[in-house]
Amino acid sequence: MKFAPHREQQDMADTLRNLLADADTPKIARAWSGGETATWWEVWRELADVGVTGLTVPQEHRGLELGPIELALCLEQLGYAALPGPVVESLAFLPRLLRDSPWLAELAGGQSVGTAIIAGHLPLALDADQAGAVFRCDGDSVVRLGGLVLERAESFDPARRLFTVEHATTEPVEAADASAAFDHGVLGCAAYLLGVGHRLLDIATEYVKQRHQFGRPVGEFQAVKHHLANVLLKLEFVRPLIRGACLSIDGPRGSRDASAAKLAAGEAARFAARTALQVHGAIGYTAEHDLHLWLTKATALRTAWGTPTWHRRRIATALATDRTPIGA
Q: What is the mean pLDDT of residues 172-182?
């Protein structure tokens, strides 16, 4: 099994990283937190121009109809940039859920985003005030909500704008396998978290080169090097799990492998956040520091799309009936 991306996939990831670096996503995230969304929509339309918004959308709905590997590579870059918005819902979950919906053309074209309430996992609708479509999934029942009354709820990550939703109408939606779509969302969240973790590591590494103690950069001290090396190891162990889940996601072991990837990504990002905060010291606790954007996101996403306990239980149940190694 080859885990390295091929040339075209790596070029796509590099192009996306450069686009997001030029966009000043920390500034966009702070504006998005406060309800100023114009700059975010500019970036979303730029993503549409390079095909990201239609990455897994069928070609008949103006999409590229690429696979989970390309999706994971792109979501990793979005996590590295901490781009807010319902990106996992719009790029990973809804295209898999609504294979035949005409609304997907609006998504692929960059005119719309979507969000969802998923019973048992996502009780609040992320960025529902900006979504062109809000869906509610309860098992295999999927409906589109109309006549919305929204009330913003508290979130540990201010850029994850959560809303309680009251609705006047429901429209049944002909959907594909909702559980399979959920697994795609889980995998997408894992990839996003991997990007968050790597950005935390890069921020911490750059900081220890600049911060001096006893006349030397603190990054030259062996103990600091060990901490950062341990972060890198944890993050790199996540990558083959995500790649394996990409290859098995639509098979009988897809749910198990997606859970393994999400669980490992969440724990690795959390470890990266704790280490980055430790090497930064007191300044890392301030909301004004860019580090804060990734710290809060790593914490919030660790329990989104299924808690660690839920994923551990699902993996254990799967392993009890299937002895095939994870990622095989």
A: 86
Contact (Cβ atoms closer than 8 angstroms) between residue 294 and residue 82: yes
Partners of 126 in the β-ladder: 162
Cβ(257)–Cβ(245) below 8 Å: yes
Q: Which of 230, 268, 277, 255 is nearest to 326 (CA)?
A: 255
CA distances from 154 to 101, 151, 247 (A): 32, 10, 36
Angle at 17 between CA 81 and CA 70, to 5 degrees: 100
Q: Provide the 3-class DSSP secondary structure of residue 128.
A: coil
- Is the Cβ–Cβ distance between 293 and 153 less than 8 Å? no
Identify whether the C-beta of residue 65 lies closer than 8 Å to the C-beta of residue 59. yes
Q: What integer best gives the mean pLDDT of the chain?
A: 92
Q: Above 60 in pLDDT, residue 327?
A: no
Q: Which pair of structure tokens corresponds to residue 168?
A: 């006047």
Size (the chain), residues:
328
Tens-place pLDDT, residues 68-116: 999 999 999 999 999 999 999 999 999 999 988 999 999 999 999 999 9
Strands of 195-243, DSSP E: 212-213, 216-217
Distance CA 141, CA 143 (A): 7
Helix axes 254-280, 222-248, angle to 10 degrees: 160
The owner of tokens 């406060």 is 34
CA distance 68 to 312: 22
Q: CA 249, CA 270: separation in Å to the nearest integer?
A: 24
Supply the DSSP symbol for 115: E
* Extended strands (E) in the chain: 114-118, 125-126, 133-138, 141-146, 149-152, 162-166, 169-172, 212-213, 216-217
The pLDDT score that the predictor gives to residue 220 is: 63
Which residue's structure tokens are 């030259």?
220
| Cβ proximity of 326 and 305 under 8 Å | no
